[in-house]
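Appendix B, record 7
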Amino acid sequence: MNSSVQYSLSSDRDIFAIATQMYVRLRRVSGRVMDVSYLVENHNYAQYIIDLALGTQDAELERYALRLKNLIQPEHEQAVQQQEYLSVDTATSAESNEDQISEEEVFKAQVPHHYIGALR
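Structure tokens (predicted):
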């Protein structure tokens, strides 16, 4: 179990390193910026950034995007499988909790950790 944790940390470091390089190049080429720490956490966002980078037709961004895709693809497939497994088990409890949790509460729970001002 300890080796799987180290593998995850190692892959997160690699993803972070590639994402920071992509950040600089993407900003130079297209003027777009991205959230690197969110990219490491959310593989759907990472896939969006990969598609964006491939759309620029820049050779260096394409190389970074393909490296990033190779790193997140196996993890993303595992996460999807695990999420499907959990959604089957919690389908009934989620339906009862949806009535109690408003969209505003979900927004308030998600937003503060994305901004530096929340850290002060």
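Remarks on this record: Helices lie at 2-30, 36-41, 43-55, 59-89, 91-98, 103-110. Residues 2-92 form one domain.
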